[in-house]
Specification:
The chain has 417 residues and is an alpha+beta fold. The chain contains 16 helices and 13 strands.
Length: 417
Amino acid sequence: MGLSTLCIAWRNLGRNKRRTLLAVGAVALGQLTLVFVNGLVAASFHEMIRTVTGPLVGHVQIQHKDWRQERAIDLCVHPVSTILAELNKLPSVRSVSPRIYAPVLAASGEKKDEPADAEPAMVLGIDVTEESQEEGLLEFVPAEELPSEGTVVIGKVLASRLNLKAGQTIAVIGQDADGFPASDLFEIAAIIDSSVDVVKSTGIVMSLEDASKFLVMPDQAHQIIVRGSDFRKADALSDSISALESLSAAEVLSWRQAMPELLRFVKTKAWFDAIFLVIVFGAAAAGIANTAMMSAFERTHEFGMLLAVGARPTRVVRMVLIESVIVGLIGVAIGSVLGTSVVLITSRTGINYAALGGVQAEDVAFAGISFSLIVYPRFELQHVLYGVVGATVTSVLASLWPALVAARLEPTEAMRS
């Protein structure tokens, strides 16, 4: 009985091929749009989180409890060597990178006979080895251009303001941790771009050793960036770090706590997925409902005969529902293939948001980070599964009323129509 019902339902789809194809097309278009747009959004959010938790804040950051509010040069954590040793013993820690920050004035070191114009800048003392690895501040800087003893790399905006090039010298004037004036000349190893705005706009990036010597901060750092195996496990990593005795007086924050504005933005993705799914398949439901309704009215005589020869009303309901579900699943299959193909193609070529909007820009800044306007969509199987579930539920709901109408027909009256 079940197999014959399925066969009849499948045969009935061919009665009005144009109407069936329109319904399949509506679902396919909805699924294609769902897979592609969600792939685009998923890529945007993934790149945003990777950019923020990579070079800027890591998965967990450690600092003096008052440093975020005051940013005073003497608010540091120490002894760094002891802290690093304890952190590296934790199995969930992938990398640890101490950083020193200090506001300074920078000028060209090339002008010896005339006063040079100075620009505000920021010294960043870093562990060059760690920060040149994946997700570090200097991830994309060639090995031969990395800062070493007496050399620095500077952001391209600062270099433009000071009219400096690689190989020249930069004069740095500031105040050390004891409050005394500090000044020195450094050779510029490279001029770099960066997704971190402070590096690109005002950054003078040097080795941690040079920064410690320049600012008189032995075995000290303003911030320690910790990266684990997965940014989604940052809270658990933060808890295990907070339990360390050497950090009892420090502030330990996961990226969610350090960047609450980004977290609120990221949480909208789940709502976006749900809302978009409802909109897309709400529109597809109209096509399926129309197909089911028209099919049910055109086959009143046939339903009457089935009921007259002893078919139960539930069989008629199943028949109409199965027809709609088949339409929905065929549409989802076609849409999934097309949507996945588009995502895989554009994942290689990328989509330039700025070009689509007619804007001349390469990136957009948010919370001190520059995000690329070229997005490479990501294929995620869950987006296809959303469509399968959505199409099935939509098909059943859209055809339920026509199915119940057909099941409640009086056989004798239906056979006369």
